[in-house]
Each structure stands twice: as C-alpha cells, then as structure tokens.
Amino acid sequence: MRITISKENYLKAIAEAEAEGEAVIAATLKRWLRVSAPAVTMATRRLVRDGLIRVAPNGHITLTTAGADIANRLLYRHHLIERMLAEVFGMEWYKIHDEAEQMEHAISADFERLLDEKLGGAGPCPHGSPLQLETAAQRRARGLRPLAELEGRGVVEYVFERDRPLLEYLDGLGIRPHALLEAVHAAPTGSGATGIASAAVEVSVEGKRRSVEPAAANRVWVRPV
User: Fold this and answer.
1) Neighbouring-strand partners of residue 155
2) For 208, phi and psi rounded to 5 degrees?
C-alpha cells in the first residue's frame, strides 16, 4: 500500500479534528483541508479501501489502528520540526506551523532520528501542545482554562496553531505562549459554564489593556496563577 502525502494529510486532519472535539464527517474534512466535496469523497473511498479509516452509516469517520499509527507518526514529525524551527533557528512562533506542514512529509527517517536525539520528544511545541494531542477535557484536567474564563492572572500555555491569521492577530496583541495576562473584568455571563465567550474579553498584557475577540479567546488556554 502506497501512503501518499494526500493520505497522510487526511489521516492527520481526522486525528486533529477529533482532538478538538469535532465529530468528523466529510464536511469536516472539506473545511479542515480546504478541498472540494468530490475530493473528500474520492479520498475517503481510497482510505476505506486501504483499511485506514472507517465510515459509519451516519457518515462519522474514524481512524483504524493502522490509520492512527500513520497519523501519529506524522504528528510526531510535525512536533519535532516545529521545535527545531523554534529552538534551533529562532523562527517566529506564528510562522512555524505552516512551515512544519510542508516539511513533515519530506524528512527522512534518519533525520527524524537525529531531531529526536537532539531535541527529545517530551517538550511542548512552540504553541504549547504536548507530544500527544489533547482534548479540551484533558487540558482542563491538567489545570488549564480558556482565556474566556480567566479571572485574575494567568499564563498562556496553549494556542490553537492551525489558524495563521489567528496566530498573527494574537501576536499583535502580545498574547503568545508564556505571556502573563490579567483579566480586566470577569468573563461575560454565559461564558463561564462552557468556556464559549459571547463578547470580547478584556485583558491586560504587559500593562496594556487589550480587547480579545470571542473566537480568539476561546482558542487560547491559560494556567491561572
């Protein structure tokens, strides 16, 4: 069975979307990969044929064990490349994901081994992601909360990395991993129970008051301090 770049991208997208709490269907992959509906149909047929995914009668798509193995290997390479770009070359944190998306398909097993030996796999990526993908529930279990729920002070630990305009927007506000933030006032009523902000979130960043759009505030996770 030949594993193409396209197949790798579909398998990784399924794993990532599941971790973000999405029920993966054809429309999910169309949106995540920015491809046409017919392209998704053809790709999923090939992946089912190759035993890499399952498609339930209701259209729900899941990875098989073989498909998950491929996705996890690619995610590991992506993680190592992001760390290399940040720790070795000092690339800006908001550019790194897009670069790693291109490079993850090209590096050899030997180069991957060298990266692993130099960097180790245990550290977080420049956006705060651990080696293994996390769900929102797992982030909460280790003490993180969405910025939409911040009261008092908190340190940014994770930012959703698969949205370059979002990362550039946040960087312009000074909101990046390890930044210390302080809520100017509590999150709006209706956001506390779900973490879904319905209005702009006001925070202080290095003494400057910033207004964070709701969609952005829900994709930044902080550790209260």
Assistant:
1) 180, 223
2) -110, 130
Q: Which of 166, 162, 180 is nearest to 223 (CA)?
A: 180
Angle CA 67–139–60, to nearest 5: 35
Sign of CA dihedral 162, 165, 168, 173: negative
- Residue 102: both structure tokens together: 């291109």
Residues with Cβ within 8 Å of residue 57, at least 6 apart in sequence: none
Closest Cα to residue 178, out of 152, 204, 208, 158?
A: 158
Q: pTM of whole model > 0.90?
A: no
Encoded amino acid at 62, one letter: T
* Alpha helices, H only, the chain: 5-19, 26-33, 37-49, 65-87, 96-103, 109-119, 136-141, 164-173, 214-217
Residue-wise pLDDT tens digits, 14-24: 999 999 889 99
Report residue 115 as tokens. 């990266």
Q: What span, in angstroms and rounded, lies between the C-alpha atoms of 47 and 49?
A: 5
Dihedral through CA 99, CA 210, CA 17, CA 1, nearest 10? 0
Using the structure block, give the residue that is written with the tokens 């959703």.
160
pLDDT tens track for 45-55: 999 999 999 99
DSSP3 helix / strand / coil % (the chain, rounded to 5):
45, 15, 40
